[in-house]
Amino acid sequence: MLSEAELTAVLQTMMRTKLTEEEAAKKVRKLMDSVDADMDGLVSVEELRRWVRNQARASDVASHAKSLSEAQKKSEKAEKAEKAKAAERQGSGDGDPDGPEAE
Q1: Which of 17, 27, 54, 77 has the smallest count of CB within 10 Å of its CB?
Q2: Residues pairing with 3 in the sheet
Q3: Which CATH class is domain 2-75?
């Protein structure tokens, strides 16, 4: 089990920069609110495991969503380029069977 004070010490150790006590307290309070499921003021190993699992899932979902968004943007860009090429061909008479070359 970890208390808020112990979690603050862990956070201070893990952070490369030294946080002020106020900054550390804010971060730890937010973390405690997220991790301490039974709100007993302590973080159990199971609560920490559950939180880490949820964070990993959220990260996976965000990563997947980003990949899908990037793929969709590429697809839309390719579609726009193809439409522009088709419009250019039509404007120049290429591919228009009723255009000036058909006469």
Answers
A1: 17
A2: 42
A3: mainly alpha
How confident is the model at residue 103, as a pLDDT?
47
Rounded distance between C-alpha atoms, residue 65 and residue 80, angstroms = 22
- DSSP class of residue 20? P
Read off the amino acid at residue 6.
Answer: E
Torsion angles phi and psi, residue 95, rounded to 5:
80, 5
Structure tokens at 24: 């550390």
**Over 90: is that where the pLDDT of 38 sits?**
yes
> 59-89: buried (b, 16+ CB within 10 Å) or exposed (e) per residue?
eeeeeeeeeeeeeeeeeeeeeeeeeeeeeee
The domains of the chain are located at 2-75
pTM comes to: 0.47
